[in-house]
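Hi, here's the filled form for the chain we discussed.

Project: internal
Contact: R.S.
Residues: 189
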Amino acid sequence: METDDLGARFSLVTTQPSVAKISRATWAGLFLSLFAMVVIRQALAFFVPEITFASAILKETLIWASAAALIVIIRRGERLPMRSIGLGTARWWVSILWGLIIAVVSAAVVGSLAYLTGYGHGPGSAAFEKLPLWLITAIVLRAGVVEELFYRGYAIERLRMVGLGRFWSATIPLVIFSLGHWSGAQRIF
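And the returned structure, exactly as it came back:
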């Protein structure tokens, strides 16, 4: 009879032996994927406390540059295909279709919750109201693409590759992602 070892599920490292030495490029990629967005957000919040058109453009440019740097690390530093972070594992039209379905369902749920709770009438919302609609749309699209690349595609896969267990490989990026999005985190960092 097989027993379910709960401790093994939450262990810090896997029981599998390490296959290869982890490159410096992978460590740099992990640092970039886990902390670049948090550092950019906190630095801009410190130096430019109020969201302006120029600060929003600067933030978006820095985040996209970080994403480009991560892709360079994957392709040139690690010499791995984009499949190593989950891109290209399904047919493109299937991914687009699922993305659209999830986007529509998410928009309906989030819109309903925002309406029911009155969310969106605070100081953060007032700052975004000053930005043009095209920029807000670009910010939302960037958030979906780059955050998935950083936190899910790269961080989880590479933390597993360096030997962390499944639980910790998912939990570490989740905690950093959550702290980066928590409005109260600006008082902590």
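Let me know if anything looks off before we file it.
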